[in-house]
What we know:
Residues 1-24, 187-233 are annotated as: Disordered. The chain is α+β, with helices and mostly antiparallel strands.
Amino acid sequence: xxxxxxxxxxxxxxxxxxxxxxxxxxxxxxxxxxxxxxxxxxxxxxxxxxxxxxxxxxxxxxxxxxxxxxxxxxxxxxxxxxxxxxxxxxxxxxxxxxxxxxxxxxxxxxxxxxxxxxxxxxxxxxxxxxxxxxxxxxxxxxxxxxxxxxxxxxxxxxxxxxxxxxxxxxxxxxxxxxxxxxxxxxxxxxxxxxxxxxxxxxxxxxxxxxxxxxxxxxxxxxxxxxxxxxxxxxxxxxxxxxxxxxxxxxxxxxxxxxxxxxxxxxxxxxxxxxxxxxxxxxxxxxxxxxxxxxxxxxxxxxxxxxxxxxxxxxxxxxxxxxxxxxxxxxxxxxxxxxxxxxxxxxxxxxxxxxxxxxxxxxxxxxxxxxxxxxxxxxxxxxxxxxxxxxxxxxxxxxxxxxxxxxxxxxxxxxxxxxxxxxxxxxxxxxxxxxxxxxxxxxxxxxxxxxxx
Length: 452
């Protein structure tokens, strides 16, 4: 016990050390008997007389004096007094040692976990740093690619704009050249007509002069006879130098039958008009003889007009124009006419064969002109005659046209250039050629007698 208290329990604290010293002293006194003890023993059973309690001091009892029972009781008392403090001390030291061991184990485990956590954090930080470096490289590379794509896009847009400008300029020059060619052909045809008129007048004058000389020299008898007849040459209806449009043609087919086969500007007399109407005659397409009443090819003329302008007509006969509903009505009232529609898209495709049909324009001049095959009235933004109660097609689709509930065609819509002509419901459209939202490049509408 002394070894256990001094060695195995380890060095105690100051208070514990003083307590241990005191315990060892008590234990030593019990073991070696250095101190004096006084025992009060009970009286012996069967003892006679007046002997009282025997008190003995500082000397061991005599042999055989104590009974076995008393010795056992004394040993038990001593054992209890000796072992109880020792067990308590051992238990306290054991608990302290267990607590110390548990604390040490927890401390070691905590240190181990901290070390593992530190290693993980270090590894994670390194991985994060590497990921940040990779991400920065990717972002830099992506930024360079985006900048390059943006530069390429800007260059492409610039080239597209330049190409569009060049295309527009080429189209403008082509259209101007076409107008000039038409004027040249018209002048050539005019000169040809005037030359033919001059030749005819010359032949007539020569024939008249010969006839005058013949009647003057052939007299009755031999005596000279003075003729009382004064010759007045009959003037040709188209004297030399008179313009070719002074003929009383009723349409371009009539002009063609008169021998003029060059496309250009002509004057015709239609209905009961006393003044001629300027028209463009197409003498080349499908045999010629066509009177053009609508033409569009460059967007130079605004077709967003009211009822009055569509009635009288507008534009340049050599360029884009609308002949006029009143003139068109009077023209179609002269007989049965065929309509031909020429269409061309921005890809160079053309269509016309499927759009030629026989029709009769009818209606009240100044109020309505309609295509009999469509069965619809002509509408403008200020004069609604479409087959739709609440549509207002002329306002939504623009221009003036024979709108059948805003149907499949409108050749007088807004003119859109290439690149802007897709998904335009209010453009120049013909559904059965390029669909309902493709705005065409050029159109031409013309008529001639059905029996031409």
